[in-house]
Every structure is written in structure tokens, then in C-alpha cells.
């Protein structure tokens, strides 16, 4: 090897780290530097714009001339270009909401300082305003390079839809179709609809039909699927062309989506077309759809055909027998119901449909107050399926009903057995409490103390833990060593360790800046793509934004997602903002004033509202109950008449002031009806006074907690327990000074 070549190779090796690698290293360094610079920029803008939020929120909620004037004055006097631009962004968005699109564009011309921070929002919003103002060419020019500049924007899909719609509106439907074809993954029904319309506009009828059919079959529960039906009819296809399997998948989706009438219509045709090997499956689905659509007689005939069919599998017959038993139960035909249950036991003794039928039967007897019969069926469930879906629940019910039948020894044995066999069940706290009560009744105070103490420690703020502390305060004597079975109980939940938002998360910082402008929906969009999974800091950040916009239900959901076991925690185990998100108290001054006016505990009323509407003043239930305290219009009208509230309309129940005024009065009347017993009053608030009268008359109760545990409706029982439990936490979190 020549000396010159040796030197050249040596230089190449020596220079390798300096000359060949720096390109990647330099890009990484520049990227890190740009990220840091942007973070610093956002942090400065966030700190400087803190006082914008209340004005921005007022403007976006009400959009009054005074609101516009206040935010514009704020924007003009800012020495910081970032803060002024943020205020102009808010002004433009307010104009956009008011359909003043030219005013929006004028305001957004003052936002250049925000381009490095929120450029994707500015481009997307400008395009939205241009589309609404019927200026498709402006949309196209605004979004021409959006994907290249903002490939990771949370607004990317919306921008793509705007861009393609503008192309179609500009007569470039071929270009729009080609653009959308490249973006069909991941699947979006709105994109498929836009693509079908682009095909249709460009006279590509065959492709349009195929795409509409795809929506019809694959998105039957989406609005776009319903639109596709109409579009297909307009193109002359009253019955969409597709394979049997496609129609079947659509029908299954409709059935699972609880669109029972639509499912009945689809399945009635498919049953006629079904190949022999699929006929029984289709008949079952058709019969279930008929049953859910309240057509019991028709459903019964189809189920009978399945049972009588020679090709039906054993599990299919069990499925049909279960529903036939349900129909007999609904009709109070006890003989028929008993015969069907016997047939199901004989033909399919291990089937999950027998398990379902037995649970339904046990509940039927319990609702009739036939506790002996109910216990027998519950026992059958957990003995047949010791680890089945309903085994823990059935075991608890058998234990509790033995207690109600005054078979205290058997109940005590079953309470202990429940803790041994199902230590992690949702009924374990109840088993601990009532086993303690049996011990207390027997004079075994030390044993009772052990059960109550374990309950208080492991389930700190549960309904029964609160009751156990009341019992502990009354007991004398020392607790014995815990019975060994108590050691099998799961320890209290461990809370998340770190709730702090990472300082280097750019999306989290952008969300904070957007929240300063009261653009809460945009802030949530940022947070939803800020991190993989659902780390605690993300839930906390989301909850903070939701609370600021009054979305308390969403704040609750965000925290529950990462901390479901919060009821077993001590107050000092979670940050104060987390507890406040879990137990908010908006409208507190009015709530407390109205509660005190009617001699009600404001903490109890707050807890009731948390359960009823989760503090959403615009909440309307399926039964048309309205507002914070979920009052029916007829009840509201009657209460308004009592206090001589003139010109009352039911819409006023959506106003917090009126709802609290009438709702506390109504609750007070119910409490008075039960001589101040809030347990009965809460049960009546949920299920009605007639049902409470029926439950109270069905047997004697030693105390109200025995009544509460005996409520046969799970929803009502859990409702009462939750409100009483949560009221205790409200008192602990917000003590009166």
C-alpha cells in the first residue's frame, strides 16, 4: 500500500466523526434547539397573557359589543407582540362564531407573531372562515402546503377535509378525488363521504356508488352512513348492492348499536336469503332484534322455530330458550317460565345462557319479595359457576337475603365465605360491614371492631367505611387480632406518584397558551395528542381545562381514568386540585343559600347534583329531566306556581339560579315527607315515592342502612349510597370556617 493511500485512509478515519456523522448530529442538535426556542417562546407568551383569559371567556360566551371592545382595547395596548396577537386570535374567533367572516379575517391579520407557535391553528381557522364565506379559492391557497408545514397538527384531518371540499366546490372534483384517495387510511367516514361526492361531481358514477355502498355497509351507526342511503337512492339504487356477508355485518352493527327497528328491517330480508348453514344464526339475531323492539309475540314465534329446528346447535337452542323464558317472565306466565327454565337446565346445564336465565329468575323472585326462592337460585348460580361472571354478585345476594330472612348464623358464614372466595369483589365492603353487625348483635364487640377497622382502613371513603367509623365510635373494648380471612383482602389502592406536567412537552405548553385565550376546545385537542396512553399529568391537565370551561363531567372522567380507586385513598395521597376536580362545587354561593333557606345540608345537595347532572346546567335526561337537579318540566311548573314565579317556562330549568331555587324546594318537600330521613328521600328522588312505599312495606328494617342495602333496583341502591358517601367527602374537602 502506498504511503499516500495510507495517509488518505488515516485522514478518512480521523475525520469520520467530524465530517461524516455531523449531518445527523447537526439535525438532531438543530431540532433540539428549535424545540427549546419554541418552548421558551410559548412560556413567555403564556406568562404574559395570563390576564387575557377572563375577558376572552366572557367574549366567546356572550359576544357582546362591550366584550369585543374590551378584548380589542387589550390587544392594542399590549407591548408584547405575542400577547396582542393572542388577543386578536380570540377576536377573530368571536367574529367567526358570529358569522362575521370578513371581520374574523381582519382580526387574524394581526396574528403574525403567533405563526411560529400556533401557525396550524391560524391557517385552519382562516380556511374555515373562507369556506363559510363561500370562497373556495382562498381555502385552497391557505391550505396548499398545510400538510408539509404542519404534518403533526391535531387539525390535520379537518384541514384535509376543508381542502378537498374547496377543490370540489371550485370545479376540481377530479383533483379532489385523487387527493382523498391517497388519504383513506386511517378510515374516516366523513372523508369517505367527501370522496363519494367528489366522484359523483366528476361523473365517476361507478366509483361514487362503490364508496357510498362502503359507507352504507361499514358505517351504519354514523351520520355519514345515513346520508349514503339517501345518496344511493338519488342515484337509483333503492336497495344497496352488496354481498350477503356485507348486509349481515351491517345488520349486526345496527343490532349492537341498539337501532333495533333498523336491525329488524335488515334481518327480515336476510332471513329469507340466508344459506342453510347460516339460517339459525340469522333467525336468532332477527328474534333478538324483534324482542328489543318490543315485538314479543313475533320474537317468540321465531325463537320457537329455532328450538324446534333440527339443525340448530345446542348453544343456539339455549340462546332461544333464554329469551323465551324472558318473554314468559315479562308476561307473568310463571308455569311457562318454570318449564322453559327446566328445559334449559336439562339441555344446556353449562351454558352461559342458563347462567343469564338463573340471574334473571333470582332477581324476579327478589322483586316479588320471595327471598327464599331467590336465595335458592342465587346459590345455584355460584355453585354451578364458582368463578363465573355473576358468581360474586350471586354469592353476596344469597348472603344478604339470608340476613334479611333473619338467618343470621348462615348469613355470617356466607359473609365470611364471600370475603374468602371473592376478596376483590365490589361487595366486599358490604360483607365486612354486615359481618361486623352480626358480631355486634351477638355481643362480640372485639370481633365487630376488627371488621369495622379493616373496612375503614382498606376502603377509606366508601359508603360502608363511613358507617363503620360511626359504629367504631360507639364500641367499647379493644379489637382482637384480625381474623385470618381479613388478610386476604386487597390493600388500598396506590395513587399515581407524579402528576406534574413535563416542562418540555410542547403540546402541553401549547394547550396552556390556548387555554389563556379561553380556546378550551383547541387546548383539549392539543392534550389529546400530547402523550401516549393516559399518564396522570395529562389527566390533570385535561381536567383543569375542562373545569375552566365548565365541563365538570369531563374533568371527572379524566381523573377517574387514571385514578379509579380514589375512594380508598386518604386526602393527603392526592394533590388538592385532583380532589377538587373529582368533587367540584360550582354555583356554590347560590347552592348554599338555597339549601340553607330550606334547612338542607348544602354538602348533601352538592353531592346529589354531582350524581344527577355532574354540574352540567344544560343536562337533559332521556326522561326529559332538566338542569342541575334534573327536574321534570311538570314538577318545575308546579314548584314555580308554589312560589308565584310568573311567566315560567321549562327552559328556565336549564338556568342554574332557577333550577337550584326550585330543586332545593322540591328536595326539601321529599325530605319532609319522610320526616327528615334523607335515605328514604334520596331513594324517592331517584325511583319515586310509590316505589319507596312499596319497598318500605315489603318488610321490617332495623335501620335505614338495612333498607338501603335491600333496595332491589341496583341503580337506586348505588345512587343513595353514592350520594351519602360523597357528601362526607364534600364536608372533608370544604369545611365551613
Q: Care to describe what's here?
A:
The protein has helices spanning 3-20, 22-48, 53-62, 65-77, 81-97, 101-108, 115-132, 136-143, 146-149, 156-169, 173-181, 189-201, 205-218, 223-234, 244-256, 260-273, 279-292, 296-308, 314-330, 334-347, 352-367, 371-384, 391-404, 408-421, 428-441, 445-458, 463-474, 506-516, 520-528, 536-548, 552-562, 576-582, 588-597, 602-612, 633-642, 656-673, 678-687, 689-697, 704-710, 714-733. With 737 residues, it is mainly α. It has 5 domains: 1-48; 55-234, Alpha Horseshoe (Serine Threonine Protein Phosphatase 5, Tetratricopeptide repeat); 243-312, Serine Threonine Protein Phosphatase 5, Tetratricopeptide repeat, CATH 1.25.40; 506-582, Serine Threonine Protein Phosphatase 5, Tetratricopeptide repeat (Alpha Horseshoe); 588-733, Lysozyme, CATH 1.10.530.10. The N and C termini lie far apart (92 Å).
N-C termini distance = 92 Å
The CATH architecture assignment of the largest domain turns out to be Alpha Horseshoe
Structural class by SSE content: mainly alpha
| Alpha carbon gyration radius | 32 Å
Using DSSP, what is the number of strands? 0
Average pLDDT across residues? 93
Strand content: under 5%
Number of domains: 5
Proportion in helices: 55-70%
CATH class of the largest domain: Mainly Alpha
Biggest pleated-sheet summary:
none
Number of helices: 40
Q: In terms of per-residue confidence, which ranges show pLDDT below 50 for 5 or more consecutive residues?
A: 1-21
**CATH fold-type name of the largest domain:** Serine Threonine Protein Phosphatase 5, Tetratricopeptide repeat
Shape: globular
The CATH fourth-level homologous superfamily of the largest domain:
Tetratricopeptide repeat domain
